[in-house]
Amino acid sequence: MRIPFSALLGMIFTGAFFLAAIFADFIAPYPLDAAVGGVWESPSSTYWLGTDTIGRDILSRLIYGGQITIFVATASSLLAFGLGSFLGFLAATQGGWVDQALSRLVDLVMAIPSLIIALVVLSVLPISLTVLILVMGILDATRVFRLSRAVAMDITVMDYVEAARLRGEGKGWIIFREILPNALSPLVAEFGLRFIFAVLFISTLSFLGLGIQPPLADWGGMVKENKDALIYGKSAALMPALAIAALAISVNLVADWILSRTTSLKGGRGA
User: Does the N terminus or the C terminus of the chain have fewer Cβ atoms within 10 A?
Assistant: First the structure.
């Protein structure tokens, strides 16, 4: 199997981001909240990416911020896919009023912008990592539901699913042994895209003040903290913004390759 250069590049950068997040405590030059220099110092041999609004090392903050950003995005994406896929498969296999009730509920939630729902909920609930993951995961599960239901609807009419029904297999068997293995490819590709949206979503919430709260840090919060540096021609706010863009692009390159490979395999089987 030949991996395109763009996908290989995406894998390398994505792997680097995840490794930096996992081993943040070992590779960050300075502690998360240590003021080690002057305000908004330019990049130098001492502070590779400069310092922020109170003299903290931006590189260290980026590494620790990536740890929080990636953790929240990954956890919320896993929750979204676990919940959305199960309900989507259930709606496709059960049909009838179960399908109608779940589909209309999802349509109702999706009719309201996710950011507005999140802002309303987070303005009422105490903000913590658990609450953020639950809110983001449940909201994103509606998108996963629609995809998984559409994929499952195509699979449920296949002969092997009908044969499982005739053997008397239950809904659980059909969902986890017949539908899920055959729906993994499009779901894996979609997982990458949903992960990107989760990164952008948590960064947006933090920029608005309802995301990750101090003393923790994430990339969106770093942009907010250092946005005034742009007035003085400093790059402190650009570094976390570039990190968000780089992670989004690298994951998207991998997801696009998986999606194109899935499409080509389907085309080959159809031929």
Answer: N
Tracing tokens 């490979």 back to the chain, one arrives at 261
How far is the C-alpha of 42 from the C-alpha of 60, rounded, in Å?
15
What is the reported pLDDT for 263?
61
Residue 29: cis peptide before it, omega within 30 degrees of 0: no
Q: What is the largest CA-CA distance in the chain?
A: 73
Q: Is residue 46 part of a domain?
A: no
Q: What pTM, to 2 d.p., does this model score?
A: 0.86
Residue 123 lies in a domain: yes
The set of residues, in sequence order, having a beta carbon less than 8 Å from that of 103 and lying 6+ positions away, is 91, 149
Radius of gyration of the chain (CA): 22
Among residues 92, 72, 186, 206, the alpha carbon closest in space to that of 140 is found at 72
Q: 1: helix, coil or strand?
A: coil
